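Allow me, if you will, to draw on your knowledge of protein folds for a short while. The matter concerns a single protein, recorded as an amino acid sequence and a row of backbone structure tokens. Kindly check, if you would, that the fold set down in the tokens agrees with what the sequence suggests. You will find the record immediately after this paragraph.
***
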Amino acid sequence: MGQRILLYTGKGGVGKTSIAASTACSLAKSEKKTLVISTDPAHSLGDAFGVDIGPKPKHMSKNLYAQEISVNEAINTHWNELKGYLTGLFQTEGLDPISAEEIATLPGFDEASQLLYLRQYYEEKNYDAIVIDSAPTGESLKLLSFPEAMTWYMDKIFPMGRLAAKLVRPVWNTVSNLSIPDDEVFKSVESLYASLRKIRVILTDPKISTIRLVMNPDKMSLSETKRAFTYLLLYGYPVDSVFVNKIYDESTGSFFKGWRSAQSEIVKEVNDSFSDLRIFKVPMLKEEPIGIERLEEMSSLIYSDASPLDTFSKEKSIQFIKEGGKYIIRLKLPFADKKDLEIFNKGGELIIQLGNWKRVFYLPTVYSDKNPIRAEFINGVLDIEME
């Protein structure tokens, strides 16, 4: 088995940090060199281990390393990759970048820096497993959709900007105090884009990466988990399991009888709703799992005889099908509401919008000259016929 990336996400407060940390401890104990990373701005990974961790990988125990990513640190680490983009951005605004602290506030730089770290660790191949304690659901989706958003910019806006700069620069730089970025800056932007595109390929490859949803057995958490699952499938990310955390068992006594009954109904709905995924049921622990020893115990309780490195579901969210002379794009969107779903054909691009999330589909070559002529959405499956 090659290098694996496991990303845990869910609503804030559901316990994904404990599950991610316990998974990392389990892997390290089984002789897999493991790095667990927190990408949540409100880091709690150090709290789970009971020690300060910091922005660089810290050796925790045999085979185990941990890191709480800092945007400022990430920008300094990947300065050569980012400086061309920054130069262009600031020059066109007549500004000079002054410090990493100011740069870190720019839209998208949090996401870009985290993805560059992930690409770096994957390419260095120093770890058998990289476990990501991700930010709450909305921020995770923002992170994972970032490379594709940049793809649209690079395909549509960037070439025009580069051409305009080439045509205008000789005159503009002699009559204005604002300088237009030179071609080396544009090359740097292309390099950054290539890096982000590469990490998207890694994260959407189910042989390498998998995303795991963590929730509590309550209605709000279940609703958010359904939405997250649907949006992740929209972007083509492999999801293989759901972790239902903090379940009350019989030992909680009569006082929690009503809670147990309500939780039981939620767990039943989880089983029915996510039947294609592996469902892990995690009891409410009597003590907080703080420190490596207790995290290892928690992992044994969660996974039993399964390996966290296993892929628990291999079903593809997006399929390109040719049947009976028809070209069909089939997309699983299990909890989407038809009224929130819109499909556009804009300038030869296929755009699918679901609620506030929009994806521009970059189609395989055989589909690139075809346009959607019919769409059908039945039982959570969207079929788009192309001609």
The first helix runs from residue 16 to 29. Residues 91-95, 97-101, 157-181 have pLDDT under 50 and may be disordered. The first strand starts at residue 4 and ends at 10. Residues 222 and 270 are 8 Å apart (CA to CA).
